[in-house]
Q: What sequence folds into this?
């Protein structure tokens, strides 16, 4: 029981971090960024390359992952989202293609086989019969710190309030002097950095492999659809629903089914409450 | 030199033309009203000043053309806009709505916030409320307050009294007068409610089907049938 609780909390913190970058873009730009998982992929491999292949300090590796994700996000906004302004189907198709393209690029550069990331912090603690790797604990705590900082940022800074404003009323934001283009750029860069850092943690949780963008994308989509919202608190709540659902499934039903119930949950919510549990898309 | 000078403005929604050759100037320190029926083009005119429509013609602010300026630069050069439907941020508090208004005037926040709360004590009492839970009158106050947070010298208000109770209309009129008299703002409003416009403004322009058809002081216009024609039903 305690074991399930601890594992659930650790996994959910990570899921919240995975989802928050996706919901940011969904709220501020009203774009379903189906290439979101590619940030995690790029982040994981950037960390692998800089921290493990080149042997840079681990913190620098995480930083490089964040920078790569940020740049990828900015490029995506400038080269795909802005030119396709408002054409949602075209944006979704192109972002999906971009993800597949990045997967091929990763295979080309790093090969097809999966890679093991060395733990960010080595060591394991046994709690109530559960082995808790320090890495996972660190990932969960780091996720929480990042989410809290983000929550503070969005509420207490001019740029953060501008992000909320653009998500709630574009004209109201414009006549307040907010430049939506700049806010969107900022949000895409931030989303990319968050996704890439989440990718480092996610890869150290599981493993690093070229198809690593699909599972996180499903988690992120699940959180958006189940929550129906872009609020950071809502993301946290729903990430815990999804995270605990997975842990409970693998503990009491079968580990192989853990992801299946997340997808079932998406379908149930889509049919039962299309606007999500909270029925709000604004930040 | 007029503070705001609009020359031969033609505004379009796709192929449909909503304004025809509108020319208008607003002197610094005055209160000007544009009166017209629903659909006359009042909101289009104000949106055009803010750079939010497709238009031809020229608009000068303090002698500088703002016709191709970005909205944020127009706001930063001293134009505050309180639009017809308010366009507030519904899930943000009153205070945060005001803070977004300060986006281009961060150095003046405490002074402007103080002014807004003095003009609208009710907003101070409800500063922690989300605007989605507020009445029409309160939303109008938040909208005006948000516009004032950008330190404007020209305040543009689209139908300040629409949907408001008579008592609240008087309150708003009082505030607009104070803004001109005590804070030396220039005020441009639109109205369907001609009585409100005539009682407040020194200069009234009548807009009909996208064209300015009459202008004058309230005394000159109160007996003008073109004014009656422009807002019949509201006399
Ligand atoms: N977004 C829009 N798209 C197309 N036509 C519009 C739009 N907004 C206004 N119009 C048209 O432009 C004209 C002027 O509208 P508007 O400026 O809203 O008038 P008013 O504010 O005086 O009621 C009307 O004929 C209206 O139907
Ligand atoms: Mg109007």
A:
């Amino acid at each position: 029981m305690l074991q399930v609780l601890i594992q659930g909390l650790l996994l959910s913190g990570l899921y919240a971090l995975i989802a928050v970058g996706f919901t940011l873009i969904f709220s501020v730009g009203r774009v379903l960024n189906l290439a979101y998982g590619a940030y995690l992929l790029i982040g994981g491999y950037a960390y692998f390359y800089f921290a493990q292949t080149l042997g840079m300090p681990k913190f620098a590796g995480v930083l490089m992952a964040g920078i790569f994700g940020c740049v990828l996000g900015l490029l995506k906004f400038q080269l795909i989202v802005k030119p396709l302004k408002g054409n949602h189907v075209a944006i979704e198709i192109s972002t999906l293609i971009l993800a597949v393209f990045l997967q091929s690029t990763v295979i080309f550069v790093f090969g097809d086989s999966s890679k093991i990331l060395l733990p960010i912090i080595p060591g394991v603690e046994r709690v109530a019969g559960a082995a808790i790797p320090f890495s996972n604990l660190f990932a969960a705590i780091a996720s929480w710190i990042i989410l809290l900082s983000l929550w503070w940022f969005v509420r207490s800074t001019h740029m953060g309030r501008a992000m909320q404003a653009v998500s709630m009323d574009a004209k109201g934001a414009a006549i307040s002097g907010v430049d939506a283009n700049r806010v969107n750029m900022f949000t895409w860069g931030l989303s990319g950095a968050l996704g890439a850092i989440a990718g480092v943690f996610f890869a150290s949780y599981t493993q690093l492999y070229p198809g690593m963008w699909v599972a996180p994308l499903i988690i992120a989509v699940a959180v958006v659809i189940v929550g129906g919202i872009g609020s950071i608190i809502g993301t946290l709540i729903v990430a815990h629903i999804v995270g605990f659902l997975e842990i409970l499934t693998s503990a009491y039903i079968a580990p192989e089914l853990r992801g299946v119930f997340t997808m079932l949950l998406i379908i149930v919510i889509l049919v039962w409450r299309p606007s999500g549990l909270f029925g709000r898309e604004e930040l | 030199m007029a503070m705001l000078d609009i020359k031969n403005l033609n505004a379009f929604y796709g192929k449909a033309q909503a304004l025809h050759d509108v020319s208008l100037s607003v002197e610094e320190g005055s209160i000007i009203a544009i009166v017209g029926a629903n659909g006359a083009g009042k909101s289009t005119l104000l949106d055009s000043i803010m750079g939010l429509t497709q238009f031809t013609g020229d608009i000068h602010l303090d002698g500088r053309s703002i016709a191709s300026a970005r909205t944020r630069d127009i706001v930063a050069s001293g134009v505050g806009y309180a639009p017809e439907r308010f366009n507030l941020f519904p899930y943000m508090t009153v205070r945060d709505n005001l803070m977004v208004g300060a986006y281009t005037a961060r150095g003046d926040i405490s002074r402007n916030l103080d002014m807004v709360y003095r003009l609208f004590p009710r907003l101070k009492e409800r500063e922690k409320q989300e605007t989605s839970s507020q009445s029409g009158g309160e939303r109008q106050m938040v909208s005006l307050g948000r516009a004032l947070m950008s330190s404007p010298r020209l305040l543009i208000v689209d139908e300040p009294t629409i949907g408001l109770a008579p008592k609240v209309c008087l309150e708003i009129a009082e505030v607009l007068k104070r803004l001109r008299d005590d804070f030396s703002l220039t005020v441009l409003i639109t109205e369907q409610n001609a009585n409100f416009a005539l009682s407040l403004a020194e200069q009234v322009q009548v807009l009909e089907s996208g064209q300015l058809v009459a202008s004058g002081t309230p005394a000159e216009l109160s007996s003008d049938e073109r004014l009656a024609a422009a807002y019949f039903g509201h006399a």
